[in-house]
Structures are given as structure tokens and as C-alpha cells.
Amino acid sequence: MKHACSIPLVLAVCALAQESQWVARQTESIRYIRQGRYSEAVVKGEAALKEAEKFGAEDTRLATTLNNLGFAYQHLGRFDKAERCYRRCLTILGRVRGREDLELAAPLNNLAGLFLQRGLYRNAEMLYRQSLSIRSKALGPADAEVANSLNNLGAVYQAERNYPEAEALYREALSISEKALAPDHPDVAATLNNLAVVCWATGRYDEAEALLQRAIPIWENAFGAEHPILAKALNNLGAVYALRSQPALAEPAFRRAAALAERVLGPQHPLLGAILSNHAFVLRAVHRDKEAKKTEKRARAILQSDPREEFARHTIDLRDLMTLRDGRRK
């Protein structure tokens, strides 16, 4: 009898050790994601996936691992790998939980974001609306996760330059998140940044600056001064100053944004290329042509293979300036 009882005991101990290893890898990966250290997050995420595969092909821990790993891949521009992770995650959760379960909302949201980055706006809108519907039914209309879905749906309309619809969704998301979370929550800052881009695009530069000046310290306090999301916000602030003919304010914002992007994302990341392109725009405006030419050359080298995908969602690109102005004249 003692021997017969020892088998399940050993199996239980092995299972606990296996789950402990998965939890450790998964926790490390999530920590790196929150810090914006996506290359390290991928390393730990792949190790977590190796452990999660042992749980079985339809285990929800495997789905969670795939979603987080896909998120890290996506932020490194490795879109094919990210999409495979998200689709496999959704397949597992759909079989185990059903197509309307709340757990599907996050990977649906992430896959929609991937489609948005690739310019597949209809696909993105469809999935964002599906995520919004799931969250609204499960959590109610005043939940922070609903605000997150509204914010992301606004990004689709922003990308399509339907600014009135984008602004309405952003303001609705902001109203919900400020009540459901707190005025200084990072999710609030994300919507403030997105709303600032819409204000910039519609010529309301003072309002855009005020929104960014509120968003930046929220993110600094939440994530520290080395998170890549700050590079986007600083770039946007520099663009606002540039169009208000304030190069003395624009240039340090672009320099800080570029240095941060290069440190945390690497010297070939498209976000860095966008920031350098904007910086060159300001250098041209103040007749520092030699420096502008050098900066433009580096920006082109970075952006030539993938000029828009990674940074376009919520980052102002001064190359859009004439297009936006022409659109407002029509």
C-alpha cells in the first residue's frame, strides 16, 4: 500500500516543481514587459512557453504565456511571431472557455493592435469591437477595461484620420478611466497622449501641449525615466513645439526622446527613426542644414525597410504635416 500511494505523491511533487518553474519564468517576463525591456521579456517568455507546453495543449496557462510572449514580440516589431502567439492563445481559450469569455478580451485586443500597426484597419476595428462587447457585457460600461477598449477603438479612427470619431472615443475612455482608476493612472496617461495627437492633427497645439504635459509625469512616476513609452510622448511634445515655431523647446525634447529610444529599443528601431526625422525637420527650420542632413540620413537608413508600422499608432510624425494641412483645407 505504501508503494501504491507513492506514485501520485511523486507526480504531485513533479507537477508542483514544473508549475513553480513556469511561474518564475512568466513572472520575470511580465516584469520586463512592464519595464519596456522587450528583448529580455522575450527570452523569459520563451522559457516560460517551454514550461507551459508541458501542461497540455489546451491548458489556460499555455494561453496566458502565449499572449504575453506575443505582446513582447509585437513591441520588437516581430509581427509574424506575435500573430502566431495571439492566434494560438485565442484558439485555446475559445475551446476551453467559449468565444464570449472575458479571458478572450485581452488577446483579441492585442491581435487588433497588431492589425492596426500593419494598416489592416477593418480587421483591427472588428476585433476591438469584439473585445469591447465582451468587456461591456462582463464588466459593465463603467469599467476601466471598457475604457481601454474604447481608447484602442479610437486609435483605428485616428489612423484613418477620422478625428471627430477618434476624439469622441478618447474622451469617453478618459471620463471612464479617471473615475474607475485615478487621474494619475498610466492608462489615463495613454488616453491623454492619444487625445493630444488628435489635437495636434486638428491644429489645437495649446491643448495638445497641456495634455502631454499632464501625461509625461504620470508615466515617469509609474514606469521610471527609462521606459520607451516616454520617448513617444517626448517626441509628440517636441512636434507640438515645432509647429508653434518654438525650436528652442522642440530640440531638447527630440534629443531626449531619441537618446531614450536608442538606449532602450536599440539603434535600428523605427521609433528612433521617426524621432530623428522630426528632429531633422526642426534643424532645417533653424537653418542648421549640415546637422539636419546628417540626421535625415540616419533616419532614412532606419525607416527604409519599415517606415510606419511600429511607431505610427500614437506618435506624431512631422512628415504628415503637409498632408494634414491639405486635408483641413478641403
How is the secondary structure organized here?
Blueprint (H helix, E strand, L loop, with lengths): L1 H33 L3 H15 L7 H16 L3 H19 L7 H13 L3 H19 L4 H16 L3 H18 L5 H16 L3 H19 L4 H16 L3 H19 L4 H16 L3 H15 L17 H9 L1
Helix pairs in contact: 1-2, 1-3, 2-3, 3-4, 3-5, 4-5, 5-6, 6-7, 7-8, 7-9, 8-9, 9-10, 9-11, 10-11, 11-12, 11-13, 12-13, 13-14
Quick structural gist:
Helices cover 78% and strands 0% of the residues. The protein is mostly helical and 330 residues long.
Walkthrough of the structure:
78% of the residues lie in helices and 0% in strands. By secondary structure, the chain is mainly α. It has a domain of 100 residues: Tetratricopeptide repeat domain (Serine Threonine Protein Phosphatase 5, Tetratricopeptide repeat). α11 runs parallel beside α13 and α12 runs antiparallel to α13. The protein is globular. The N and C termini lie far apart (86 Å). The N terminus and C terminus are likely disordered.
Secondary structure: helix percent: over 70%
Largest sheet: none
Rg from alpha-carbon coordinates: 22 Å
Low-pLDDT parts are 1-6, 10-14, 307-313, 319-330
CATH superfamily of the domain at 223-322: Tetratricopeptide repeat domain
Q: Indicate the structural class.
A: mainly alpha
User: What fraction of residues sit in β-strands?
Assistant: under 5%
> Could you name the CATH class of the domain at 223-322?
Mainly Alpha
